[in-house]
Amino acid sequence: MTVAAIAALGLVVGSFLNVVVARLPHRRSLWGPRSACPACGAAIAWHDNIPVLSFVALRGRCRACEAPIAWRYPLIEALTAGTFALAHLVLGLSPALVPALLLLAALIAITFIDLEHELIPDAITLPGVVTGLVANVATGAVPWLDSVIGAIVAGGGFFAIIVASGGGMGGGDMKLGAMLGSFLGWQLTIVALFLAVVAGGGGALAVLSTGKKGRKDPIPFGPFLALGGAAALLWGRSLMAWYFDVFVS
Ligand SMILES: [Zn+2]
Fold first, then answer.
1. Residue 65's pLDDT is what?
2. Secondary structure of 156-195 in HEC code, one letter for each residue
């Protein structure tokens, strides 16, 4: 029952994340005007703006001009609903679910913005650093000191990489790292960075093997950081317990 409620919340949040992804990179207001068709400018009625269902009912086309609606819209809504439900199943209905859902929502918006624009907006990551710390203090999900150390270590680590590589990685990645550290605490952040590097390496090989991008073309690292962060949030503790069982004891 609560899983259905959390998934429904995910649909609504996903609908808002679509607005964030479409408007934030263009510095447009998130709060107005109402959503309109980018092709013909017709305002979208509330009954044509229901997450996932409206896309299916309209067969993916604008009611006024029949221009195709981007797949991104139902995809982000379904993805947010799915990850919210998953977080509830893994973490249970605990106070720790609050920072978890906030982090997942931020990571989904960041992933789609970075894929499309190759930038990670400060408008998400900088308030994210503060939100992670406050949400952890308020819910007790992560001790505040672990949260602060996580933000400093991850942000500082990326800063060192940027300096050492002469700009091989962006400042956006650094601030996203600090945000992950603040939400996850330093222990799970190490897991997140490890998973991100593994996924990023695999992703880079996959992209290179298609031949569409060369070795010099930049591949955004933000989506891999987001993936590593989400995986560490959900399964990091089990992964660490397994690791220490197998290799340390
Ligand atoms: Zn239209």
1. 95
2. HHHHHHHHHHCCCCCHHHHHHHHHHHHHHHHHHHHHHHHH
pTM above 0.85, yes or no: yes
Distance from residue 40's CA to the centre of ligand 1 (Å): 4
110 Cα–ligand 1 center, Å = 27
**Distance between Cα 224 and ligand 1 center (Å):** 34
pLDDT digits (tens, 9 = 90+) for 162-184: 888 877 678 999 999 999 999 99
> Residue 46 and residue 243: Cα distance in Å, rounded?
49
* Separation of CA 175 and ligand 1 centre (Å): 37
User: 43: CA distance to ligand 1 center in Å?
Assistant: 8
Question: Which residue ranges make up each domain of the chain?
Answer: 1-93, 121-249
Q: Residues of the chain whose pLDDT is less than 70? A: 168, 249
Residue 11 alpha carbon to ligand 1 centre in Å: 23
